[in-house]
């Protein structure tokens, strides 16, 4: 459940230490204290933005969709005066749904090949072996005459 408690920027500014680190991204007030150690970009960059609106910095890095979805996990509220967009904005960015569709389409296409391939695999060696033995039979028979 995403928190919608309203905070002013001066309230956010009070949380700018390593033990209590908040920042704002896209109007979301985020408590990233527990995320500092896990942030793939390092804790330093987060601490530099502590207590501030880091929207521009976050966008400048070109964070992935999974990074954008992670924002919800750390949200403790929203910034006062921000016209808050629907949470679905973040979830729409998820890559999970298209991946599932691509997978099922691939499975359907792939399903036809083995039946056809099995027939070819069965008959081609049979025809080759048959031709070989016919040839041997005919050539051996003619040399004996
Ligand atoms: C709660 C907020 C944030 C989350 C959840 C987050 C998440 C992530 C994730 C998952 C990555 C790995 C790459 C990717 O998937 O895009 C990443 C990389 C990075 N992040 Fe963040 N980030 C946050 C805030 C910030 C802020 C505010 C800054 C800068 C001021 C920043 C700077 C970076 C940098 C420099 C990298 C490394 C990029 C690279 O190696 O190419 N991040 N972050």
From TrEMBL:
Q: Name one GO cellular component term.
A: membrane
Cite the Cytochrome b5 heme-binding domain residue spans from the record. 4-80
Q: Sorted alphabetically, which PROSITE patterns does this protein's record hold?
A: CYTOCHROME_B5_1 (PS00191), CYTOCHROME_B5_2 (PS50255)
**Is Transcription regulation among the key words of this record?**
no
Question: Chief location of this protein?
Answer: membrane
Query: Could you tell me which SMART domains the record lists for this protein?
Result: Cyt-b5 (SM01117)
* Chain segments annotated as transmembrane: 116-135
Its subcellular locations are:
Membrane
Pfam families in the record? Cyt-b5
Q: Which InterPro entries match?
A: Cyt_B5-like_heme/steroid-bd, Cyt_B5-like_heme/steroid_sf, Cyt_B5_heme-BS, Cytochrome_b5
Q: Does the keyword Membrane apply?
A: yes
Q: Which UniProt keywords apply?
A: Heme, Iron, Membrane, Metal-binding, Transmembrane, Transmembrane helix
Q: Which domain of life is it from?
A: Eukaryota
Query: Care to name a GO molecular-function term for this sequence?
Result: heme binding
The family assignment reads: Belongs to the cytochrome b5 family.
Name of the featured protein: Cytochrome b5-like
Q: What is the lineage of its organism?
A: Eukaryota, Viridiplantae, Streptophyta, Embryophyta, Tracheophyta
The gene behind this protein is: LOC111311345
């Amino acid at each position: 459940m995403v928190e919608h408690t309203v905070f002013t920027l001066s309230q956010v500014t009070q949380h700018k230490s390593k033990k209590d680190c908040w920042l704002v991204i896209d109007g979301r007030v985020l408590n990233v204290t527990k995320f500092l150690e896990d942030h793939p970009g390092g804790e330093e960059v987060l601490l530099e933005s502590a207590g501030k609106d880091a929207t521009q910095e976050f966008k400048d890095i070109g964070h992935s969709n999974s990074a954008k979805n992670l924002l919800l996990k750390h949200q403790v509220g929203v910034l006062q005066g921000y016209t808050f967009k629907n949470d679905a904005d973040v979830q729409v960015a998820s890559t999970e749904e298209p991946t599932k569709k691509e997978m099922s389409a691939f499975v359907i296409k792939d399903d036809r090949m083995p039946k056809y391939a099995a027939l070819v695999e069965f008959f081609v060696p049979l025809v080759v072996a048959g031709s070989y033995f016919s040839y041997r039979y005919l050539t051996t028979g003619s040399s004996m005459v």
